[in-house]
Specification:
By secondary structure, the protein is α+β, with helices and mostly antiparallel strands. Helix content is 46%, strand content 23%. It has a 6-stranded antiparallel sheet with strand order 8-7-6-11-10-9, sandwiched between helices. The protein has a 5-stranded antiparallel sheet with strand order 2-1-5-4-3, with helices on both faces. A 5-stranded mixed sheet has the order 13-15-16-18-17, covered by helices on one side. The relative contact order is 0.05. Bound molecules: adenosine-5'-diphosphate (ADP). Adenosine-5'-diphosphate binds next to helix 15, helix 16 and strand 18.
Amino acid sequence: MYLEAGLADPGNSFKSESLQSFIENSPVGIHSVNEEGIIAFANKAELNLLGYAEQEYVGQPLKKFFHDPVFFDELYSRLRKEGFLKNEQAKMICRDGSLKEVMISCNYHSDGKKLIHSRCFTRDITEIKRSEKLLVLLNRAGEELAGTRNTDEALSKIIKFLIPSFTDWVVINELGMDGKAHLLKMAHSDPERMKLAEEYRKKNPIKVDNNDKNLVAYVLKTGNPQLIPEVTEKILNDGGIDHEYKRILKDLAVRSVMIVPMKVKQTVTGVVSFFSCNPNNTYDEKDFNFAKDFCNRIAVALDNARLYEEVRRDIEQKTEANNKKDEFISIASHELKTPVTSLKAYTQILQSTFADEKIPGAAEMLAKMDRQIDKLTLLIVEMLDVTKIDKGELIYDDEKFDFNEMVKEVAEEMQRITKSHQIVLNLRDCDPINGDRNRIGQVLVNFISNAIKYSPGGDKIIISTSCADNKVKLSVTDEGIGIPDEDQPGIFKRFFRVSAKNSYTFPGMGLGLYISSEIIKRHHGRIFFESKEGEGSVFSFEIDSNV
Ligand code: ADP
């Protein structure tokens, strides 16, 4: 036996087989090509790979068997230049005209000057290529589904990648609440041929119960995926398939079937049926695994889309309810405003009349009535303001004004109507500021009335102002009930009220601070507070003095 220099002696086991038999029976395709590019030798594996008899292959130019002759020339010239080719992928033409994906490694034997022959190994990489293709399909499917909320559109796109490279006919069913399979998508490489199947399906809905012979129903019920590599006559006869459907399957030349569940957290949500009608492309375990992965992705995407749709509908319903509530508040506050204004006017007339008549107790009762009407008016004004804020209709009249002057006016007015608390002013000198005097005053009224309302024991309320760095800051400090930590995050929200844990109940609608925060926001300022339950609160705002 001749061994090229550098090769280890293969030992006794090799000696029992001739080198020729070793090469001839090697499981990898081996061929040799002479200087003219003619195949001088091919082993059995090479001939089997492409389906030729020896005399059809050996003696022929190798180029003839390459799908891409230009690529062949390129490979051949590289082989001559570099002396070898390593793991080059190419497509070769089989005897039946089909193409085979191969990987070729070659080197050549020369007499030192010229090439005598090349030695080539040809490996079949159809399976590797198929797995790669399936992986690409899976990733594209994942991307399509992840990138859209419109699953119907995404499924149509995905089906286009699958047909015909992976399947000739695909049917996606979703399990409905009614226990029936609902057809989501059906597609075939030849849509005309699928029409009968569509009509059949319309006439014969698939029910999960009592229909175990139907494979789709069985998979929906059990979640066990089914692979039928070869659809035989026996399977058609024993499968509980009626005549009409059997004819459809035969018409479409179905060769191989996979029926795979779509599952979300172990619950079957639907089923995908893949039909191959190509005798060269029957399904095997690899396809089956791909189909399972694929169905898992679809299931999750469909479930996400369903959840998204539910949330969207929920938000829509809540928005609609909210709009109705706003509309109600708007109408109710408008309707209340006029009678309350006349009530106030009549009360004041009566107050002065009874003051003149000197009827004991009457003036005092009317003053109380007047204060209650003021409270009612404030509630109505708050409701009106909220609806205006929502519609962006709250009007601001900006002007230059003396901030401390405004604070003193509001404080005096509030002191006039409250006997229980003492309002103390602690004001620093400030330059005039720009803004809506009344609206900023409204924020201060809200701070003071809250400080009064939420300090039922009655005590001092301190109003302080400070001005620095073109900002004015105002704080209202009380020693009242304070706000529990857990309630603090919601305090500026609409209709937010701290749940009463103590014996006190305080009137209000939870609108004042929301309106105040909107007013301060409009002045590009900051509203904030500090509070400790049982010790009191400090409500503050800060605005630029020249907004
Ligand atoms: P309301 O009309 O309910 O007073 P606000 O929007 O003015 O509405 O206040 C929202 C909630 O914040 C109040 O219901 C109250 O629980 C709490 N709150 C506001 N100011 C104070 C304060 N100074 N002390 C304690 N709690 C307060």
